[in-house]
C-alpha cells in the first residue's frame, strides 16, 4: 500500500499524472516481476556475458578518443539540465564537473509540459553518460561553456547569413528550444560513428555503442518533433521549421569543410533514402548509414570558427583533453586560406538566398505545401545549397582538412566479424519488407529484387492504412532498410531472405502473448497509423540492442564503421517510433481499453520474458527506478543504469523474434528460422 501511494504521489508531479492508479499499479507489478526474472536469470547459462574471450577491455590508444566525447557530453548535460530544471551539473552531480567553471548564460527555458519532460530525461541521460565515460576512461574538468542566448543568436545569424530580428532566443519557447537542441546531439552522434573504427577494447566498444545508441535516439526525438511541425512558421520569423533545420545543417557542413554529412528534415531526392524520399527524419548517407566526423571536424563546428585551432562558440576557451588541447596549442593554423575560402562560400550562399527570396520562390513555397509535396522552388533552393556543398566537398575531400579518419595499418574486415554482421541481415530483411509493404503496397522484390537473393516472398505482407505523416516516415524507413541490406551484403556477403511472416494474424498472436489474454477483436497492425506504430515498436529496437551487443565482438575498422552507421539509424528509427508513441501516451488504442503507454510496457515486458536475461527493454513510461538517474518516469528512450543502450546476444534476439523464448525453436516472424551460420547452428543443435 505504501508503495502504491508513493507511486501515486510521484505521478502527480508528472505530465503522465492522468494515468490512473490502477494502470500505474499494473506497470509497477510488471516491473517487479521483471526484476525477479532478472535475478533468477542473469547468472544462468542462457545469458553468457556476450564479450569476446581473452580480449583486452580498454586499449591505451582508446582513452584520448573516448575522453574527447566528454566535451560534447558536458555541453549537452548543462544545456539540457539548466533548461529543464533551472540548475545544472553543479547541483545534480557536482563531482562530474571536476572543478570546471560554471557555464556562461545557462538558464531555465520556457517549455511546455511535453518538451519539459523530454529535455529533463535527456539531461539526466547525459549525467549517466558523463559518469560512464569518466569512470571507464577517466576524465578532465568541464570546459568553460557558453550557453547564453546571445551565443545561440550568433550561430543562427551565421546559419541564415543575416541577423535575425529580434535575435534568436533558444529559451523563448518550446519550438525555439527544440531548434536550438537540433544543433547539439547530432554532433555527438557523428563523432561516435567516427570514433568507433578507431577503438579496440571490448569495454570501450561496448561503451561507445551504448552512448551512440542514446545520442542517436536523442537526435531522432528532436528531429521527429521538428518533422511533425516542419511547416510551422517559427515565431517571430518568416521561416519554417524545415528551413531552420536546413540552414543549421548547411552551416555545420560549411564549418566542418568536409562535404555533406548533415541534412535537414526535408531534402532534395538526391539526398533522400535511396533517392526516393524528401522526408528526412533521419540524416544518413548513400547507404542510409549515419555519417561520421573526425574530432577536427567537430571542433570546427562547435567552435563556430570553422577552425579547430581557434576556439569560440560554445567553448570560449576551447575543449579539454589531449586531442582538443593539442589542436589549440599546436597552432597548425591553416589561417587565411581556409577561412578565406569559407567566407567566399558563405557569401555566395547568402547571395543566392537573397536572390531567390526576392524573386519570391521560397516565400511562396512556405505557404501551403504538404510534406508530400514541397514545391519545385523550395527544392531548387535546397538544390543550390546542396550544389554549393558538393563543391565544397570536392575541394575538401582530398585536402588535409579531411583525412580518412581510419586507423593506419589496420585490417578492414576480420574473418570472425562476418557471421556476426551477417546475422543482422535477418532483422534488416524483416524491417525492409515490413516497412516497404506497409508504405507502398509492395516490398523488396519490387524495390531491389537482387537483395532478396531468391528468398521466398513474405507471408501476409500488405499496405497499411496510414495517414500522411506516418506514411512518409515509414516510407523513409523502408528505403533506409534497403540501403542497410545493400551495405551489409556488399561488405560482408549475405544469404537469401528468410521466410518472413508479416501477417496481421502473427502480430495478433504476439500482442495476445504480451497482454496475457486474447484481445477482441484481434490486434491488426494494418488497421490505422497508431496500430501500425505500435506494431513497429516491436522491431527496430531488437536491431538496436543486437548491434550494441555485436560491437564489442568485431574488430575490422570497416566492420566497425558499418556497424556504427547501422546502429545510428536503427536507434534513430526506434526513437522516432517511441517519440511518436510518447506524444500519444495517454490515448486509448481503439478499439481496446488500454493506453498507448500500456501497450509499450506490455510489449517491452514480453520481450524481456522471451529473452530471459533480465530487463533490457522498457516502455515509454517507467517507475522511477528505471528512469534516467532514478529521476524520471518519462522514458522516451530505453537505456540502462548509465543511460547506455542495452545490448543483447544473438540467442536473446532469436528467442524474441521467434516468439518461442527458445533460439532452437523457430516461429513468430521466422516460421522456418533465420538464415546465416549463427541462426542455422541453433536450429541444427536443438
Ligand atoms: C513576413 O512575411 C510577410 C508576408 O510575406 C510580411 O508582410 C512581413 O513583413 C514579414 N515579416 C517579417 C518579420 O519579416
Ligand atoms: C542516387 O542518385 C545518384 C545520382 O544522382 C546516383 O549516383 C546514386 O547511385 C543514386 N543512389 C541510389 C541509392 O540509387
Ligand atoms: C502536389 O499537391 C497537389 C495538390 O495538393 C497535387 O495535385 C499534386 O499532384 C502534388 N504534386 C506532387 C509532385 O506530389
Ligand atoms: C472499456 O472500459 C469501460 C469502462 O471501464 C467498459 O464499460 C467497457 O465495456 C470496456 N470495453 C472493452 C472493450 O473492454
Ligand atoms: C537508482 O536506485 C537504485 C536503488 O533503487 C540504486 O541502486 C542505484 O544506484 C540508483 N541509480 C542511480 C543512477 O542513482
Automatic annotation (TrEMBL):
Transmembrane segments: 12-33
Pfam families the UniProt entry points to: Ferritin_2
Keywords attached to this entry: Membrane, Transmembrane, Transmembrane helix
Highest taxon of the lineage: Eukaryota
Name under which the protein is recorded: Desiccation-related protein PCC13-62
Gene3D superfamilies with a match to the protein in the record: 1.20.1050.10
PANTHER family xref list: DESICCATION-LIKE PROTEIN (PTHR31694), OS05G0151100 PROTEIN (PTHR31694:SF26)
Sections of the chain in a coiled coil: none
InterPro entries per UniProt: Glutathione-S-Trfase_C_sf, Pigment-catalase-like
Protein species of origin: Escallonia rubra
Amino acid at each position: 500500500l505504501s508503495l502504491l501511494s508513493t507511486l501515486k504521489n510521484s505521478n502527480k508531479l508528472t505530465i503522465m499524472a492522468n494515468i490512473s492508479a490502477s494502470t500505474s499499479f499494473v506497470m509497477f507489478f510488471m516491473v517487479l516481476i521483471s526484476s525477479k526474472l532478472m535475478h533468477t536469470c542473469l547468472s544462468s547459462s542462457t545469458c553468457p556475458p556476450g564479450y569476446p574471450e581473452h580480449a583486452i577491455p580498454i586499449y591505451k590508444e582508446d582513452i584520448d578518443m573516448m575522453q574527447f566525447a566528454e566535451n560534447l557530453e558536458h555541453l549537452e548535460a548543462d544545456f539540457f539540465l539548466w533548461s529543464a530544471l533551472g540548475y545544472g551539473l553543479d547541483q545534480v552531480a557536482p563531482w562530474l564537473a571536476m572543478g570546471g567553471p560554471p557555464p556562461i548564460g545557462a538558464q531555465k527555458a520556457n517549455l511546455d509540459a511535453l518538451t519539459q519532460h523530454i529535455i529533463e530525461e535527456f539531461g539526466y541521460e547525459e549525467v549517466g553518460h558523463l559518469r560512464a565515460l569518466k569512470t571507464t576512461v577517466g576524465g578532465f574538468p568541464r570546459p568553460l561553456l557558453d550557453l547564453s542566448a546571445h551565443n545561440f543568436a550568433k550561430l543562427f545569424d551565421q546559419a541564415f547569413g543575416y541577423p535575425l530580428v529580434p535575435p534568436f532566443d533558444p529559451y523563448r519557447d518550446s519550438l525555439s528550444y527544440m531548434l536550438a537542441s537540433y544543433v547539439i546531439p547530432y554532433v555527438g552522434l557523428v563523432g561516435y560513428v567516427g570514433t568507433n573504427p578507431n577503438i579496440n577494447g571490448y569495454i570501450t566498444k561496448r561503451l561507445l555503442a551504448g552512448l551512440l545508441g542514446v545520442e542517436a535516439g536523442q537526435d531522432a526525438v528532436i528531429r521527429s518533433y521538428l518533422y511533425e511541425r516542419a511547416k510551422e512558421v517559427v515565431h517571430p520569423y518568416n521561416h519554417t521549421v524545415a528551413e531552420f533545420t536546413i540552414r543549421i545543417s548547411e552551416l555545420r557542413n560549411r564549418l566542418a569543410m568536409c562535404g555533406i554529412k548533415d541534412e535537414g528534415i526535408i531534402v532534395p531526392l538526391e539526398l533522400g533514402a535511396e533517392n526516393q524520399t524528401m522526408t528526412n527524419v533521419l540524416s544518413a548517407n548513400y547507404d542510409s548509414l549515419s555519417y561520421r566526423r573526425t574530432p577536427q571536424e567537430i571542433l570546427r563546428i562547435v567552435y563556430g570558427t570553422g577552425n579547430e585551432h581557434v576556439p569560440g562558440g560554445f567553448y570560449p576557451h576551447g575543449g579539454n583533453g589531449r586531442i582538443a588541447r593539442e589542436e589549440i596549442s599546436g597552432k597548425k593554423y591553416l589561417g587565411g586560406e581556409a577561412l578565406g575560402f569559407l567566407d567566399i562560400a558563405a557569401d555566395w550562399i547568402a547571395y543566392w538566398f537573397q536572390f531567390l527570396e526576392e524573386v519570391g520562390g521560397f516565400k511562396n513555397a512556405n505557404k501551403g505545401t504538404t510534406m508530400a509535396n514541397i514545391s519545385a522552388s523550395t527544392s531548387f533552393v535546397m538544390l543550390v545549397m546542396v550544389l554549393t556543398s558538393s563543391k565544397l566537398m570536392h575541394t575538401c575531400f582530398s585536402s588535409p582538412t579531411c583525412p580518412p579518419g581510419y586507423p593506419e595499418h589496420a585490417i578492414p574486415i576480420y574473418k570472425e566479424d562476418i557471421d556476426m554482421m551477417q546475422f543482422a541481415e535477418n532483422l534488416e530483411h524483416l524491417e525492409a519488407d515490413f516497412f516497404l509493404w506497409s508504405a507502398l503496397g509492395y516490398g523488396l522484390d519490387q524495390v531491389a529484387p537482387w537483395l532478396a537473393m531468391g528468398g521466398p516472398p513474405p507471408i501476409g505482407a500488405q499496405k497499411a492504412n496510414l495517414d500522411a505523416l506516418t506514411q512518409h516516415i515509414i516510407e523513409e524507413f523502408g528505403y533506409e532498410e534497403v540501403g542497410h541490406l545493400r551495405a551489409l551484403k556488399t561488405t560482408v556477403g549475405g544469404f537469401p531472405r528468410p521466410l518472413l511472416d508479416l501477417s496481421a494474424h502473427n502480430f495478433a498472436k504476439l500482442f495476445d502473448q504480451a497482454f496475457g489474454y486474447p484481445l477482441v477483436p484481434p490486434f491488426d497492425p494494418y488497421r490505422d497509423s497508431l496500430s501500425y506504430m505500435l506494431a513497429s515498436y516491436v522491431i527496430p529496437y531488437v536491431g538496436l540492442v543486437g548491434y550494441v551487443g555485436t560491437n564489442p565482438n568485431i574488430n575490422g575498422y570497416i566492420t566497425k564503421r558499418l556497424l556504427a552507421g547501422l546502429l545510428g539509424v536503427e536507434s534513430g528509427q526506434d526513437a522516432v517510433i517511441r517519440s511518436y508513441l510518447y506524444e500519444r501516451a495517454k490515448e486509448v488504442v481503439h478499439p481496446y481499453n488500454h493506453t498507448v503507454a500500456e501497450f509499450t510496457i506490455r510489449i517491452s515486458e514480453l520481450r524481456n520474458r522471451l529473452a530471459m536475461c533480465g530487463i533490457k527493454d522498457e516502455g515509454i513510461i517507467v517507475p522511477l527506478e528505471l528512469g534516467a538517474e532514478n529521476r524520471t518516469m518519462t522514458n522516451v528512450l530505453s537505456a540502462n543504469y548509465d543511460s547506455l543502450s542495452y545490448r543483447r546476444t544473438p540467442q536473446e534476439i532469436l528467442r524474441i523474434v521467434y516468439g518461442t523464448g527458445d533460439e532452437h525453436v523457430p516461429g513468430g516472424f521466422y516460421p522456418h528460422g533465420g538464415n546465416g551460420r549463427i541462426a542455422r547452428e541453433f536450429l541444427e543443435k536443438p
